[in-house]
Amino acid sequence: MTALGVLRLLDEDASERGSSRPTLAFDAQFCGELGAVAADRDAIVSAVVRGLSVRARFYGTELSTVNKPADFTPATFEGIARAANRWQRDALAGLACGTGAAEVAESTLCAANGASHQELVRSIRDVLALVEPEHIEAGLFRPWSKSYSVPAHKRRALALGTRKPTLRLDPADERLYALRATNPTPPSSEYKTELGAQALAIPAFELLPVCPASRRPLCIASRRGRNRVFFEWALWSVPATIAAVRSLLSVGPHDADSALARGAFAAFGAARVTGEKGKLSIAPSFGIWQQRPA
Predict the structure, then answer these.
(1) Could you identify which of 7, 34, 210, 230 might form a hypothetical disulfide with 97, taking C-beta atoms 3.0 to 4.6 angstroms apart as the criterion?
(2) Phi first, then psi: what are they for 201, rounded to 5°?
(3) Which domain holds residue 42?
(4) Burial class of residue 92 (count of CB atoms within 10 Å of its CB; 0-12, 13-18, 19+)
């Protein structure tokens, strides 16, 4: 998700400047590699920070009364969509889907649906309010230490209470008892995360729209099975622009021959699981198939 979010922001910046569109690929260690971007790290960080600042204004104004996707009504969702520009409509489509019924269906990628005060849109606002350029630089160019904790003065200034700055996409953000071999860390311990990675994942929702399905809407790259929702994706070694990435995400990884022909070399999945009191969590990923890149 972080890699997709970075590609989205840099592609947006390249489009505005009329420069070459960036590409994304993955190496044999599954690390993302950007192509056709400035060699200057400061320029990359600045472009990403600008894109996140634009999104902070959108989530803090147009979506200021929405805490989770299920808060949308058909009328409010349609009203915001009508006034939105292209990337804002993509952001809305990544959060929810209008179905013509009395309710708006939230993304199946949403693991912060209101249980125990975990709310995706409010968490997005929290993350964007906390993130600084140094967090972005660390998320892009350094090994993730997951050492960020909210300073006390910022927690008070933003009235965070006990909320965690997380989108709950990392399995470590909510280790349910059923997924652990030992007792979890005591609740009193300060939550720590990689804040830059959390922020960079936000624009990735714009590439994963929620679409109507025969049963209930699903976001791109997900499916239902065994009473769970599974998210499945491929990694590719051939540099791909954002248009090619959208295509790869929409096709899915299960037809291995087709995915290999498109430059993919591995496929993975992760389940969204439900814990006590309806809390959702993303379980650790699992391999579907793999062929090492040449």
Answers:
(1) 210
(2) -75, -20
(3) 2-290
(4) buried
